[in-house]
């Protein structure tokens, strides 16, 4: 039973749960960014540059009769590089926004606690003593 207890303690640690939540949110965010890149950004880039993913280089010297010619699809690589750049930029914006929100919370000092009854009484005594002098 010691193994199961140890596993339960490990699985219920705050770090493991936080990491699991991060992975799930990261997967969902990845799907959003992929949709943005595939359906919004790449069609715009494709309209400007032509069909980026269809760019190929035909190697005539490496053709074998009865087989398809060997194509070097450098356009697919360029499209993947553009997708990576856009995805990295989107992640950068999200991390930057999260960091600025954290800084706002950290920079603002907490409001001072109201004085307790004891402190109020001590302040009154102090003020009375000052008046006597």
Folded structure, characterized:
- This protein has 133 residues and is mainly α.
- The chain has a single domain, classed as Non-ribosomal Peptide Synthetase Peptidyl Carrier Protein, Chain A (Orthogonal Bundle).
- Helices cover 72% and strands 3% of the residues.
- The chain is built from four helices and two strands.
- The chain has helices at 2-11, 14-49, 74-107, 117-132, and strands spanning 57-58, 71-72.
- A two-stranded antiparallel ribbon has the order 1-2.
- The longest helix is centred in the first third of the chain and has 36 residues, at 14-49.
- The chain is elongated.
- The N and C termini lie far apart (74 Å).
Number of structural domains: 1
Largest beta sheet: strand ordering: 1-2
Shape: elongated
- What would you report as the Rg, rounded to the nearest angstrom? 31 Å
SSE layout and pairing:
Elements: H1 2-11, H2 14-49, E1 57-58, E2 71-72, H3 74-107, H4 117-132
Antiparallel strand pairs: 1-2
Helix pairs in contact: 2-3
